[in-house]
Structures are given as C-alpha cells and as structure tokens.
Amino acid sequence: MYKKSITIVVATLFLSALLFIPTGSSALSLDPAILEIDLTAGAMTVAPVTLENDTLETLSLETEVVMFTVGDETGQPEFAFGETPSGIATWVDVDAGPINLKPGSTEVINITFDTPAGATPGGYYVAVFFNQASPSDEGGSVMIESKVGTLFLATVAGSYTQSGKIAEFSSSGESTMGDQPVDFTVRFQNTGDVHLKPTGTITVTSMMGNIVKTITVNSDKGAVLPGTIREFEVAPWSDIGNAFGKYTVELTMSDGTVTDSQVLEFWFFSAVGIVIGIVVILVIIFAIVMMAKSSGKRKTDQV
C-alpha cells in the first residue's frame, strides 16, 4: 500500500464530470474511461479495459480500486482515496501489479466483479486506477508520475426505483429590456436507486405560437447519481434580435424512463419593439381622429 505522503505529479484522470472525455494524447492511456455494466447477484462479470503505452520505455503499473461519489452539483467525481475498500470495491478482482507494459504496446486487463448473492439491487459506483510509480525518495514516500482510471457505473439487476425530477428551471429574468442574452439554470434531481442520464430540450415559443429557439440540455448524457442533484451547463439564448411581447419557455428532461417538464413565461421589451408599438398606436389614433373629423364634416354638410 502507498503511504499517505503520496505526491501526484501527473494525474490523467479524465475528470470531465462523469463523462471522462480524453483530454488529448498522453504517455499512458486507458480505454474506456467510463463504463456502464450490469451485474447479477451471486454471479461474476468480467469487464475488459485496454491500456496503451505511448512512450519509449517500459512502464510499471500498480492498480488501485476506490469508490466514488460526487462532491457538488457539477457532477465532478469525488474519490475515496486512502480509505479501506468497502461495498462494491471489495467485489473487484484485478491484477494488483506490477503490470509491466512494454514501449508502444497495448494490453487488455480483465476486471472481474464477483457480486455477492445478497447484493441489493440498484446502482454502485467504483473506479479502477492504474498508477505509474517511481522509486521511493529518501523520505520513504512514493512519487506517482501518472494515474489513469476507468469509472464503473454498475447496476445490480432486480427490483429498484428509477425516478427523478427537475429541481430547478429558471431564467436570468422574467422580463428583459433590449436584446440582452437570456441565461437558463437547469438542475435535475435523482430520487431513485440507479444513475440517470437525462437529456432535454428548452423550447422558446412566441405569443403568436411560433417556435423561435430550441436549446439542447446535457447532449453528452452526463450521469446523475442516486440521491444527488446536478446542474447542467446550458447555452444562453443570445440571438434574440428584436423580440417583443410574451414568450413561453418549456423545458423537458427525459432519460427514456423518467420524464419531467417545467414552463416559464416572461416578457421581452426591446427598444425597437417599443418604438414600433408607439408608431402603431399613433397611427391608429390618427386614423380614428381623421375618421371622426370626416364623419363630423359630413354631418355639417348635410345640415
């Protein structure tokens, strides 16, 4: 086991909010970076991952199995480094190392999940890391030069609840003056027993019933773990132009099994729209006045 005085020099952890998108080439790479697997109580499941050594030297790797959750509403994983393995971390069987990976080579590593017969159905979350370590320094601590890992989003089959809802859908204001961009806040809450990957659409409709804008939410299908709330980044409505009047904005989120919707209503007041409105009103008033004068003149002529 590594001592607590571990120094991480390079950590290629692919921490892209539970999406684990590779951030370019690196000396040591791992595929896939995130993997959803189905487990059966009392059975063994094998999940292969592929390590690749892009360097010109042999790499010596040791494995590390840690559970994780999310620390905030960004979806960023929070790993239980240094803690005694428990739960699903004790179900994982993988070569502890050292695994010697030759220059320019790839190797498939089988990660086995031995699910207990009494495992409760639902979601379980664990990460398996492969650490490249250098020799200990004089103080006895281990220097970790690189670390790559795969997140496992596991679901034990059986009777479990899939549920969730939109925790918040709001805009930067229920009314706005001019053509300032409108920002939206979308927060989704997972109230079930397994992770969800809800995607959504924000639809903006004018008071004439025309759809003027659609915005996609969570197109990368980021996961929301059970018992957590995740806030998704949403592109602002920036091409407003000379919008004027009442607009209805509807958000629908769904992962195929759980669906929820919320609606906002607000007004746009643009300078151009106000000028046009004033001109229209003045024209109408002028027309009424002229009609009244014309009518009065006809009556006078008749007398």
Can you walk through the features of this model?
By secondary structure, the protein is mainly beta. The protein has three domains: 7-156, Immunoglobulin-like (Sandwich), CATH 2.60.40.10; 164-269, Coagulation Factor XIII, Chain A, domain 1, CATH 2.70.50; 272-303. It has one helix at 271-302, and strands at 7-8, 28-31, 34-39, 44-53, 59-70, 77-79, 92-93, 99-101, 106-114, 122-134, 143-156, 164-171, 175-177, 184-190, 199-206, 211-217, 229-232, 245-254, 259-269.
Q: Descriptors for this entry?
A:
303 residues; mainly beta; Immunoglobulin-like; Coagulation Factor XIII, Chain A, domain 1; 3 domains; seven-stranded mixed β-sheet; five-stranded mixed β-sheet; 19 strands; elongated; disordered N terminus
Class derived from helix and strand content: mainly beta
Average pLDDT figure: 83
Describe the main β-sheet briefly. Answer: 7 strands, mixed
Rg estimate, integer Å = 30 Å
Distance between the termini: 113 Å
Low-pLDDT segments, ≥5 res: 1-17, 19-25
CATH topology (fold) name of the largest domain:
Immunoglobulin-like
| Number of DSSP strand runs | 19
Tell me the overall shape: elongated
